[in-house]
Design goal:
With 195 residues, this protein is mainly β. 7% of the residues lie in helices and 46% in strands. The strands form 3 sheets. A 6-stranded antiparallel barrel has the order 4-5-8-7-6-9. Strands 13-12-11-10-15-14 form a 6-stranded mixed sheet, with no helix packed on it. A hairpin with a 7-residue loop joins β12 and β13. The longest helix has 5 residues.
């Protein structure tokens, strides 16, 4: 059973939905269903990163809330600025699509396109330790923020009154990224912090 807007929803009641035996261990949540779109079961999807290029080549996704996830086929994807329109094969009406509002969208790492050199998936940056060029620990990346101009690292540092610092994810500040070692080196002096 899924909870959605104060009511229980069980997607298998919708035609052709089948609960996934298990969400793949390498799954990544990339966005959520914002609302129904059109009368034939289309949905408008939002992305955590603001980028839906991942979905363009996907034939299937997992949809769900909490611990219950459903493998779903994608019939079509239309990428628009800031969102994507999806036609999920199992959905045939707007009423069906409305039940999915708020559902998370997940894909596997294998479905992600290979990144270009010095390009990183946010999920790979989250959890990386951040130090400055002199080796001073600045915290751990807990999130990234899309600002339009460039992304910003949100770095948790309990030593700061605010609990975090924001550093633009641009070459002027980010000097080295080692995803395997989960380490990012930045040009940053602690005297630049607002706390």
């Amino acid at each position: 059973m899924l909870q959605q807007k104060g009511k229980q929803v069980r997607l298998p009641e919708l035609q052709n939905f089948a609960i996934a035996s298990a969400l793949p261990a390498d799954h990544l949540e990339i966005g959520w269903i914002a609302c129904a779109h059109g009368i034939r079961g289309g949905v408008r999807a939002e992305s955590f990163s603001g980028n839906f290029d991942t979905l363009a080549g996907c034939k299937f996704v997992w949809l769900g809330w909490g611990i219950e996830w459903y493998a779903s086929q994608i019939a079509s994807v239309t990428i628009r600025p800031g969102f994507a329109l999806l036609q999920i094969a199992e959905l045939t009406s707007r009423n069906d699509a409305e039940l999915l509002q708020g559902a998370r969208i997940a894909v596997t790492r294998a479905q992600l396109p290979v990144t270009a050199k010095e390009t990183y998936y946010w999920v790979d940056l989250v959890g990386c330790a951040v130090t400055n060029q002199t080796g001073v620990a600045l915290g751990v990346i807990e999130n990234l923020i899309a600002t339009g101009a460039h992304d910003v690292l949100s770095i948790r540092d309990e030593a700061l009154k605010s609990g975090s610092r924001l550093i633009p994810f641009v070459d002027a500040y980010v000097k080295r990224v080692d995803i395997k070692a989960k380490r990012v080196v930045v040009e940053w002096d602690t005297s630049w912090d607002d706390d």
